[in-house]
Specification:
Keywords: Signal
Number of helices: 3
Helix content: 10-25%
Protein name: Lipoprotein
Largest sheet: 5 strands, antiparallel
Order of helices and strands: HHHEEEEEEEEEEE
Structural class: alpha+beta
Shape: globular
Strand order of the largest sheet: 3-4-5-6-7
InterPro entries: Integrin_alpha_N
Length: about 240
Amino acid sequence: MRRIPSALTALTLLCLLAACGGGQAEQSGAAPTVGPSAEPSTASVLNATTPEASPTSETPAPQPKSASPTASAISTTPAAAPAKKPMTCAHLAQARLGSSKVPYNGYPDYLPLADGQWSGEDGATVTLQKPCGIGDLDGDGADDAVGAVAINSGGTGTFYTLAAWRNSGGTPTFRALADLGDRTPVVSITVADGRATVVWLTRGPGRGMAELNIKRTSVYKLSGSKLTEVSHTDAPYNP
């Protein structure tokens, strides 16, 4: 029997091993081809479930503010005008008579009445008369006063004058004068509708100073610093 050379035997064995092992290596050792995954990625899932907020250029509308409780509680009713302080005829007893701009009987300054009277160094005496009228004379809504004063300088004559005082917070402030004449006493004074109605006694032409035969009703209106007579009516007077 012929012997196979050892070299050839080794080569044949090596070939067989290579043929068998190669197929198995090809089947088991082949690296799997990496292809695109059919499963959704984590990023795509997040993008699908969480929509991205798109920027906007619109400014958010301001929220309306609720009214303040204090503001809503404020009343819209206008405040009532302060009440005028009253003035009475009794206030005139301590009033000032005349002024530097409107002098009484030529005196350069006012005369301060005390209990309705004033006495000067010249011997003259001024006395506030009882007739007095209270009412709004200048249209400011406060009651003013119109009174009468008489001055006697020591002789037989007694000169009567009307005086008007403005109501300044309940205090009489001298305003105007109107002379009536010698021995012409005042009977009554009323003030209404911005006018003063004065009833006083006087005389007709040709009568003596002591003869009073006319009862005159004069209507006066305040005109600056004067009481101006706007009308009068006469009636016979028999004492």
